[in-house]
Amino acid sequence: MKDTYQSITEASPEVLFKDRNSKFFGYAFPIKTEEEANEHLAELKAKHHKARHWCYAWQLGKEEDNQRYRANDDGEPSNSAGMPIYGQIQAFDVTNILVVVVRYFGGVKLGVGGLINAYRTAAQMALEESNIIKRTIDEVYVVKFDYPEMNKVMQVIKQNNLNVIDQKLEIDCQIFISVRKKDAEDIYSKFDNTYKVEIKKLEI
């Protein structure tokens, strides 16, 4: 089971590719929502308000079966900008990411082949300048129990080196844990089979 994915930790530096007087500025941003992508696009449109095109592609989702993407040519010939940018997102195997290429027209038409090369290259340069890291896909659970069961629960947490992300330790206790996906079923059963302990998966 694949339970890792790659993304970038922060926005890339601005990169620049030139072809026959046209300038292509490339950017990559980590995102978690489509709204974040739209915010970055609005900022770039304000920064480069004299540009001709703001072409982009984004992908969201940690697992292949629930990933979604969008590619936008923003007035360039069909599939000459957005898809070449998206192709680089796929080539670098990254997700939760937005890549934008801003074009200033230089007065000379590049043709579809030239555009594909320019947008692909600018996207590639932005991703090459990005800090790409591998992360695990985790499940989050809440473990519920009464205070007298504390030792049993903490023993399971300690033995399995589990990541506690929050806890409420009162008469009715709750501990929130993050578990790597490949281990999730095993950890669930350990708590589920512990007397007077309840475990529930949280949708995040």
TrEMBL record:
Pfam families: Impact_N
Gene3D superfamilies: Impact, N-terminal domain (3.30.230.30)
Name of the featured protein: YigZ family protein
An annotated GO cellular component: cytoplasm
InterPro entries: Impact, Impact_N, Impact_N_sf, Ribosomal_Su5_D2-typ_SF
GO biological process: regulation of translational initiation
Family: Belongs to the IMPACT family.
UniProt domain Impact N-terminal: residue ranges: 20-127
